[in-house]
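look at this fold:
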Amino acid sequence: MEGLSERAYAEHAGISRGAVQKARKTGRLALFADGSINAAASDARLGAATDPDQQMRARGGLGATGDGPSASGTGDSTSYIKARTALTVYQAQERQLSIQKKKGVLVDRARAETLVFRLARQERDLWVTWPTRVAALMAAQLSAEMETASGKAVTIETAILQRVLETHVREQLDALANLRVSLE
């Protein structure tokens, strides 16, 4: 036998034989051709694949001083700790965004863009129909004021005034069409 048996490796690693069997079944142990366990390679694999928090809990969960978790000197656990920290930060940010959405501080971008587009379309439609609605009223008011000022009867054609108003409103709407909303 080149390496260690399950029982010998369990004693070497300070874990139960059941844990060794489970690690063997999941492929976390390095084995020699005869099926015995390569202790050095298996130690490295288990250290990289096992949650450092779980390892600490298995050892009692407290550091040498008894006041909290001890910092292990291995470099293998730092990548796990960094990944776990990144995940925790991401989850906290996600919760914060969810809370802001619920409070109404944050809105869905696609929905906001749709609402802005709909509002702009309604505004444009109102302006396009505005000359038709006010041309007759404006023609009557202008005719009355010019008649009062000059003392002569003056008639302003509603159709002509409507075309002039439509031309100027279209120019204004064309200028407004170049405006873009940036929600960034």
